[in-house]
Write a structure and sequence with these properties.
single chain, globular, 11 helices, 4-stranded mixed sheet, about 210 residues, alpha+beta
Amino acid sequence: MGKTTENAHHIRAEIAAERRELADVLEKLSPEQWDTPSLCAGWRVREVVAHMSLGFRHTLPRTLLELLKARGSLHRMTDRCARADAFRHPPAELVAHIRDNVHHPWTPPVGGYTSALGHDVVHGLDVTVALGLSREVPAERVRVLLETVDAKSLKFFGADLTGVELRADDLDWRHGSGTPVHGAAQDLLLVAFGRKVPPGRLRGEGCERFLLT
């Protein structure tokens, strides 16, 4: 077995574990928690979870049709679908969409299985961090995703790290140049994916620009 195939099997196992673990968390949420704003701007927890299963439930033709309805805007399409699906499906169904598809081979248009892992991990953190839950994503998953951070990914996610160097407290990882900003690796992953995190999760001069207000 070649290294590429072996790595793909490893990433797919991590994806399955992430979805299974997240479903365990989601099924315990209260109705109020489902309506809590997430770290994904404009979406509550229920919209985030609905979005996470979009690729499992929509065929390619249907996705292309939705994209056409959104006049070619991927952002508009995903927002419209997330809101519609969150309205259409109660929480128990949203959880089932995740749990029943732990081995689904869906991947985003670019990036393969690593991007699929990033999609699950970051959106999972959009939920758990916003709710103040103490879930820690296994370090191996976070490390794999941090290794993909580069100028292209930062631009795609709208993350401006000008003048700062992100430094993980719990992993041997740093990125950028400038004033150090310290934090847990999974919080820095959120920053690198264009999110802001709750106060108290980062340290360093100028870290306020990455914090929720």
